[in-house]
Amino acid sequence: MHGFAYRHGSLHCEDVDLQALAEEHGTPLYVYSGNTILDHYRRLDKALGSIDHEVAYAVKANSNLSVLKLLAAEHAGFDIVSGGELFRVIKAGGDPAKCTFAGVGKTRPEIEYALKQGIYSFNVESEEELRYLNEVAADLGVIAPAAVRVNPNVDAKTHKYISTGKSGNKFGVDFDYIADVYARAARELAHVKLRGLQMHIGSQLTSVKPFVEAVEKVAPLATHLKNTYGIEFWSIGGGIGIVYHSSLESGSPSWWAAKPEGERPLTIEEYGAELLPRLQHLGLKILLEPGRYIVGNAGVLLTRCLFEKHGTTKTFKVVDAGMNDLIRPALYEGHHEIAPVKEPGEARRKVDVVGPICESGDFFCQDRELPDFQPGEVVALMSAGAYGFVMASNYNSRPLPAEILVDGSTAKVVRKRQTLDDLIAGEV
Ligand code: LLP
Question: I want to staple 138 with a disulfide (CB 3.0 to 4.6 A). Which of 191, 295, 313, 405 is the partner?
Answer without folding.
Answer: 191
